[in-house]
Amino acid sequence: MSPVLPRRRAILAATALLGTGVLAAAAGRAGAQGRPLVVGGKNYTEQLLLAEMTTELLRAKGIAAEKRDGLASALLRQAQESGEVDVYWEYTGTSLVVYNKVEEKLSAEQSYERVKELDAKKGLVWLKSSTANNTFAIAMPKAKAAEQGVRTISDFAKLVNGGASLKFATDGEFARRDDALLGLQSTYGFKLPRTSLMLMDVGLMYDALHQGRADAGAVSSTDGRVRAFDFTVLEDDKGFFPAYTLCPVVRQEALDRTPGLADALNDLASRMNDDALRAINGGVDVERKTVREVAAAFLRGQGLAG
Hints:
By secondary structure, the chain is α/β, with parallel strands linked by helices. It folds into 2 domains: 7-133 and 245-301, 3-Layer(aba) Sandwich (D-Maltodextrin-Binding Protein, domain 2); 136-233, D-Maltodextrin-Binding Protein, domain 2, CATH 3.40.190.120. It has 16 helices and 10 strands. The protein has helices at residues 7-19, 22-28, 45-60, 73-81, 92-99, 108-120, 142-148, 153-161, 172-176, 181-188, 202-210, 224-228, 252-257, 261-269, 274-285, 291-301; strands at residues 37-42, 65-71, 87-91, 124-126, 136-141, 168-170, 197-199, 216-220, 231-233, 246-251. It has a 5-stranded mixed sheet with strand order 7-6-8-5-9. A 3-stranded antiparallel sheet has the order 3-10-4. Strand 1, helix 3 and strand 2 (65-71) form a beta-alpha-beta unit. Helix 3 packs across helix 16 (291-301) and helix 5 crosses helix 6. The two termini are 31 Å apart. Residues 1-33 have low confidence and may be disordered.
């Protein structure tokens, strides 16, 4: 959900790319022998890293691949369904709630099986499930949470309903999604006034919390800055947020024409867990290394590339 890179420019550039038909032209060559696979990615650090690692891993395996990252979630999903993107890493909760409109509360395993079944009807294959769960969370600066006696989201809701003047840092996507702020407010029975919302790029949210300019905000559980900045993550005591298990999702057509693709992606998925994601995310967002540097170091460390 969850970087120091120029998100806004990335989204605009990606949108323009779709609008000019560059990706569509690539999709039009789908039948051509040897057309590179198009690896997609969303517009935040974790997704940029996954897109980079996937592209470099496939090339190391002798599979031609090109990268198209920096896309907003809905644009990326549309691009895959229309054949403009062949593979990207998705989260079970996002597909379940946002794309397939499933409101039923399911376990992590049930969510995976359900989206696997539903997306198969659209020609999309969910490969091996990683153990990484990049769920949404609500965080506060530790001193602020202790001062207000807030440990759970229910405590936070009471604070809001009690008239506390709060600033809540969020990106526009989290603010609009039913599996995010809209549904959260409904479940916990509170409503943040518009004047409380600090809409900003994802990476800036963490800085706003860390610097005390925001009282609370939306974070991703696998973001390296949550631990580095010592935030208090509020307990989701009503179990609102679904599991967001990370998996590679591939067009069936791409699997059929690319021997070894499933094995390569399943191997990478088996190495993805919460600690691994926190480490690579922190490499970019805390240690200020480039996406390419961190991705290459991870692949080398796993013996997946030279």
